[in-house]
Amino acid sequence: MTDTAGTPWPTLPSTFLALAPDAHTLERSAAVVLPVPYDATTSFRGGTREGPRAIIHASRQMEDYDPELDRVTCDVGIHTAPELEPHAGGPAAMVARVEQAVGWYADRGKLVAMLGGEHSLTPGAVRAMAKRVPRLSVLVFDAQADLRDDYQDSPYSHATASRRMLDSAPVTLVGVRSMTDGEMALVRQRGIPFFPRNADPITEVDAIVASLSDNVYVSVDLDGFDPSFMAAVGTPEPGGMGWWEVLRIIRAVAERRRIVGFDVMELAPGEGPVACAYAAAKLAYKMIGYATHQAR
Ligand SMILES: [Mn+2]
Q1: C-alpha 235 – ligand 1 centre gap (Å)
Q2: Ligand 1 centre distance from Cα of residue 161 (Å)
Q3: Which of 105, 144, 148, 156 has its CA 20 to 30 A from that of 70?
Q4: Residue 100 phi/psi, 5° resolution?
């Protein structure tokens, strides 16, 4: 791919939204897309390590204008960071590497948009933000509660993601429809704000926003969506959320709180149609739009 600035012919950079690297430098960009191609603990169907590349590839087909916000979102600057190299030392070391990278970009004032990769990475991003931002809470969209304290002898697994986030900040869980009775007991015991997805769409937007403190990290495990729309996930779970159902909540959070970072996790591109990677890319772009809208 020709990313070289200054060629006399037009090029399609292999960046998010095919944005020109010489225009969307780190320095000039408000947002940073951080690809983390890592999946070591996925239990059912693998392949989320291919997620970031598939999302970025699909994003190159998107329009840059957002009709909902009446705005060319990428005008804020979106820098595509180099992929994080997987750590061979195991999930805990990889989570620490994510913490280091997210913290490094946050220290430079960037809105970090992490593309996964498996959901076990998110606690690293949350830890980084919790150390830098006062009154942080986490909004998680997920089909599974992921509240086990350990899974397959590891405290850092996709099945323990939300539990590890709780070590750093309060977590609001939205879209859950698969969990153990032990996890439900923990929800009750700790009073975790919990908005499960049952037969009807989740419309408790005000209650979700009210459960969150001033600064919010948003983590989207794509299996929170319904698998008829988002099939390309490792653990598809029927009865999930819809596109606007999720976006309406995130937009309300962005308007009434400050979104300090977010991620889009668990895309396993080989398990579903290309439309899934495109939707994941568009979700990331919508979230950059929502998160930076209020700052204008
Ligand atoms: Mn999940």
Answers
A1: 7
A2: 9
A3: 105
A4: -60, -45
Cα 77 to middle of ligand 1, angstroms: 30
Confidence (pLDDT) at 296: 40
CATH superfamily of 36-293: Ureohydrolase domain (3.40.800.10)
When mean pLDDT is compared across 5-9, 36-40, 49-53, the lowest value belongs to 5-9
Residue pair 173/220 in contact (Cβ under 8 Å)? The answer is no
**For residue 196, is it left (φ>0), alpha (ψ between -120 and 50) or beta?**
beta
What six digits make up the tokens of 216? Answer: 């919010």
Ligand 1: centre distance to CA 247 (Å): 18
How close are the terminal C-alpha atoms of the chain, in Å?
A: 34
Cα 209 to ligand 1 centre (Å) = 21
Tell me how far the alpha carbon of residue 96 lies from the centroid of ligand 1, in angstroms. 21
C-alpha span between 98 and 8 (Å, rounded): 38
**Cα 240 to middle of ligand 1, angstroms:** 11
| Residues in the chain, total | 296
Distance of alpha carbon 171 from alpha carbon 140, whole angstroms = 7
| Confidence class for position 42, pLDDT limits 50, 70, 90 | low
Measure the CA–CA gap between 41 and 60, rounded to whole angstroms: 29
Max Cα-Cα span within the chain: 64
Three-state DSSP state, 62: coil
